[in-house]
Amino acid sequence: MLRPQRMKRVGLVLLKDDAPRAALLLADYGSFAPELTEVVPESLPELAGEGYRAAYREAKTRLDRILAHFAMPIPDESAEPLQAVAEPQLREVGAWLKETWTRCSKAEERMRKLREEHRRTEQLLQGLDRFRNIDIDLTRLHAKGTLLDMRIGTLPSANLQRFEEALRLAGYTAIPFFAAEGVAHLIIAGDSGQAGAIERVLQAANWHATDVPAEFHGKPAEVRADLTERMLGLDRQAAEEERQRRTEGARPEFQARLVAAAHTLRRAAPYVQLSGLMRGRGELVAVSGWVPDSGLRPLQQCLQGQLCGRFVLSARAPRDDEHMGVPSLVSHRRWLRPFAALVLNYGVPRYDEIDPTIPFAVSFVLMFGMMFGDLGQGAVIALAGVLFSRRLGDYGPLVVAVGASSSFFGLLYGSVFGYEGLIPAVWVSPLSDPMLMLRVALGWGIGFIVLATLLTIYNRLIEGRLRDALLDSHGVAGLVAYLGLLAGAWRLLTAGQLGAAIPGVVCAGLGAIFVDSWEKSAGSAFAERVLISLVEAYEAIMAYLSNTVSFLRLAAFSLNHVALSIAIFALGNMLHAAGYWVTVLLGNIFILVLEGGIVAIQAIRLEYYEGFSRFFSGDGRPFRPLALGSEPGIALQDR
């Protein structure tokens, strides 16, 4: 439970005709993570299932588009027997989906044109608003007359007066009909023979010609009536298209065939995923993958029962040189799933690496309770975890656990909804002895860091990194120096002297770190190597000390929790009876929501940066088993 499951590398050789059936069995088995076969390409030069994959991709794309067109949900998993899908059957389904999508695409194209026409008509109606103050036939603004030169355009309102005066000199008349945002819209008319003479006037006035849409025929009121009628017609056509879409999508025979097609593709998906990793020659194909050690025998029995011995299954343990590539499959009980999810937010444990989920769960819950210790508020959190378990999903047990921890520490502190005197403290009230709380927080931090360093040493020994396990700053050398410093600090506080052995222990640890850094910087100049090694040793000590001091926040937040409650009661005491209880109620809600969230973040921060960063690489490879119908994800098995 503290380490990923043991894995076996398996190789499967079988007949090409049995490959779709075998893929379906492996997907239903649910614990086979496929990889490229180890067989050299020269032995098996052919790639299997290229035509099958192409047919599947086309059919799946069309199915997704059809489901989106009819706004239909993805069909539920079928209880029908797991029957392999042959390529002719897949192509038959693909042909029906292609025919169906052709009809759907035509309907979507009609709807697209209706939407565009609707949008265009709306824009015309908006543009028509500019002409609401004039009562002329807009058709006259389209064409150029032989005797009368009529134009429509805009210019800055500030230029309008001088523009009108200049037009009158040229024999033209200006008719302003709309103004907005400092821009005047107007019609100018005059003798066509003077058209060339006013070009300079138009240019000087910053005139911009406006095109009148070709749809504007008649007076503005008449045009508006026509456009409104067009809008209503477009709405009727769109409603009819929508009615036809719903009618076709609701037909039982159509739905049944669409569901059957979805289930066919779901059964075809495993072979599509697997065939991309297969290689073959003639009638034989081969594929490799990873299987949990405990699942090897059930897998063999499953294949034997369905393929009747027409396969060869080989298995071996991971080699030392491929441990980084072995997928990690961690088995957790259901109540650990929310903690495992938080661990996966940081990273996936490597194969053979310690899985930090259980240490994380225990330490996170205890740290939250220490920082947010209150019997009543913790009970509220736990109760919320129970009442809203369905909405919280997998995180329900986490909420209940931190609430129970908060209540437990509240009992130790003698705190109930911020009241310190209702029940006697089983241990101590934080504000009554702040120094004790600080010492406890430091002790917790020391224990946490020592445990994290021991886990680091263990992980490196498992990985075969003996030198790093012994000499690195996060290895035995760093731990010895850290414990020596702690022992020295203790001796100074209690006895007033260091003693003879402690400086030697600290120097031995730092010397080992110095030597390790010296060797790793080989090839650099002498002075540079000395500097690097000294800085490495200094940084190691400062990191240990700063990480230890970080845990003082456990005491700080426990004290802050009490201080915030005192502030709320002080504010309530300034009010009358009803105001007092309203203040206490709202204050407790404020503490639960705001401080509770901050404390949770701080606990996660301590876990990630003071714990995980030491011993947990987080760069493991997730176990992704072959699955039915969809891309598989990280496997978190329940027990």
Describe the structure in brief.
With 639 residues, the protein is of the alpha+beta class.
What does this structure look like?
With 639 residues, this protein is an alpha+beta fold. It folds into three domains: 1-48 and 276-329, Alpha-Beta Plaits (2-Layer Sandwich), CATH 3.30.70; 143-211, Alpha-Beta Plaits; 330-621, no CATH class. The protein has 20 helices and 14 strands. The chain has helices spanning 19-29, 50-69, 87-128, 160-169, 199-204, 220-250, 252-275, 296-307, 337-346, 357-371, 375-387, 389-392, 396-413, 434-462, 466-471, 476-494, 501-520, 526-550, 552-573, 577-615; strands spanning 7-15, 33-35, 46-47, 148-156, 173-180, 183-191, 208-209, 279-281, 284-292, 311-316, 327-328, 330-332, 621-622, 636-638. Strands 1, 2, 3, 8, 9 and 10 form a six-stranded antiparallel sheet that branches. It has a four-stranded antiparallel sheet with strand order 5-6-4-7, covered by helices on one side. The longest helix has 42 residues, at 87-128. The radius of gyration is 39 Å and the shape is extended. The model is unreliable at 631-639 (pLDDT under 50).
Summarize the helices and strands and which ones pair or pack:
Layout: E1 7-15, H1 19-29, E2 33-35, E3 46-47, H2 50-69, H3 87-128, E4 148-156, H4 160-169, E5 173-180, E6 183-191, H5 199-204, E7 208-209, H6 220-250, H7 252-275, E8 279-281, E9 284-292, H8 296-307, E10 311-316, E11 327-328, E12 330-332, H9 337-346, H10 357-371, H11 375-387, H12 389-392, H13 396-413, H14 434-462, H15 466-471, H16 476-494, H17 501-520, H18 526-550, H19 552-573, H20 577-615, E13 621-622, E14 636-638
Parallel strand pairs: 11-13, 12-14
Antiparallel strand pairs: 1-9, 1-10, 2-9, 3-8, 4-6, 4-7, 5-6, 8-9
